[in-house]
Amino acid sequence: MRFLCGPAGFRVPGISDAMQVVVYGKAEKGQVSVGGYARELLERAHLEISPRAWDFVSIALSVVAADFTALRAKSPDGWTRVIDLEIAVQDPALWNNQARALEGALRFLTTDQWTLSFHAGGFGPPAQLQALHPKEDSVVLLSGGLDSLIGSIDLVEQGIKPYAVSQIVRGDGEKQDRFASSLGLSRIGLNHVTKSPGPQEPSQRARSIIFLAFGLAVATSLDRYHRGETVPLYICENGFIAINPPLTATRLGSLSTRTAHPEYLGRLQQVFDAAGINVKISNPYALMTKGEMLVNCENQAVLAQHAVASTSCGRFQRFGYKHCGRCVPCQVRRASFKRWGSLTDTTKYVYDDLSIDSPQYRGFEDVRSMGMALASVADHGFEQWLGHSLFSTFISDRNGYNQMLARGLDELGVLHRSYGLS
Question: CA 320, CA 326: separation in Å to the nearest integer?
């Protein structure tokens, strides 16, 4: 499926069969719109953003719009899509030089086939008559999740003062504000607000790219960046979920997200470096399990105050803004609370008692897959189960990741045994 992504009226000679994506504007009937509200919020914040970082926001918005609009069910294999993007930017020569690198990152993230071409005519960052250069020394992505909460707490305890960037997600906005306020952090909440004329693709594997793009944009507005210094961009995610090893052979593509995988982040870092964007992506918890993040959090009192209110569920909105209790992220969360041991997990799980012999509880696919993974390790060894999950040139400390994943499985094993599942 081909998309023309740019300001209203953007056209490319010779292309007439593409879906129009209006970036930062209002779509007409039959078109897709994306990014208008985010541009408005950034303009109101008076942040002076690097033009190249702004181009990357435009690219990320185009990717998200296509990801929402192109339905996997219509692809020949029911999953892998072929997506061609024609994108309006300010510096098409630079981005055409980075097109193959971006395609590789997107292919790894979504398992689709992407082709990107860049053209002149894209919007630049909002002009600021009274531009602000915030004094914070870094940016942290604050999602409302438990990992980003711990990361923000630890940064503050270490004497680091990050600017918090959040994606506005219904059900999470108030807790994002609460977390940031309790830590004394400035915060901006943004959202792509994609509107398409038809049904939206439910998998939405590319949505994380816009969160990073928003973080990148804010990072380039900081005083530190404008003084020519490198700005850290912290994405705080436990290593088990970041690697997200397929639990079984059937979960290689559709059920294994890669939003914080070192290969995906490493590929994007190479693009930022080539574009001369002086921002460094960092995940300080790449070699920690979620339970270890809880145990080692540097302010246990603040963590205890907010931990239960955090969001971990992959189906949070679907279940009325409640944790389902049975998806992989929920299982990892529940196991991490057991590992922590300092606070009873009073999260209200829709499917709380996983021992119930029912397709909705014990027999649910994610619960069964986790049980199969634990059984496979017990029967055939960890290395055979792990397979090729760590075969990436962006993973240098394979032994460290190996040990972390084994410890993560141990945490999950404790959870399953507590319900008599293994």
Answer: 15
Token couple for 188: 């901006």
53: closest CA among 226, 236, 227, 257? 226
The amino acid sitting at 82 is V
Residue 290 in domain: no
Give per-residue pLDDT as tens, 143-164: 999 999 999 999 999 999 999 9
pLDDT digits (tens, 9 = 90+) for 254-269: 445 788 999 999 999 9
The count of structural domains within the chain is 3
Q: Are residues 145 and 263 in the same domain?
A: yes
More confident residue, 206 or 171: 206
What is 334-394 written as a DSSP string? HHHHHHH-SS-----BTT--TTS-STTTTTSHHHHHHHHHHHHHHHH-HHHHHTTTT--TT
Tell me the DSSP string of 156-187. HHTT--EEEEEE--TTTHHHHHHHHHHTT--E
Do 272 and 152 have their domain in common? yes
**Do 64 and 181 belong to one domain?**
no
3-class state of residue 384 by DSSP: helix
Task: Give me 135's structure tokens.
Answer: 């004094």
CA angle at 64 for the pair 30 and 101, rounded to the nearest 5°: 125
Distance of CA 101 to the CA centre of its chain: 19
What is the extent of the structural domain holding 364? Answer: 312-418
Same-domain status, 261 and 144: yes
Q: What is residue 323's three-state secondary structure? A: strand
Q: Same domain for 164 and 258?
A: yes
Residue 127 lies in a domain: no
Do 341 and 389 have their domain in common? yes
Written as six digits, the tokens of 287 are: 């070699």
Q: Which residue has the tokens 């961009």?
A: 233
Is the domain of 170 the same as that of 264?
A: yes
**Strand, helix or coil for residue 22:** strand
Q: Which residues of 48-58 are buried (b: 16+ CB within 10 A; e: fewer)?
A: bbbebbbbbbb
Q: How far apart are CA 278 and CA 280, in angstroms?
A: 7
* Sequence-ordered strand ranges (E) for 68-214: 82-88, 113-119, 138-141, 162-167, 187-190
Residues 394 and 327 in one domain: yes
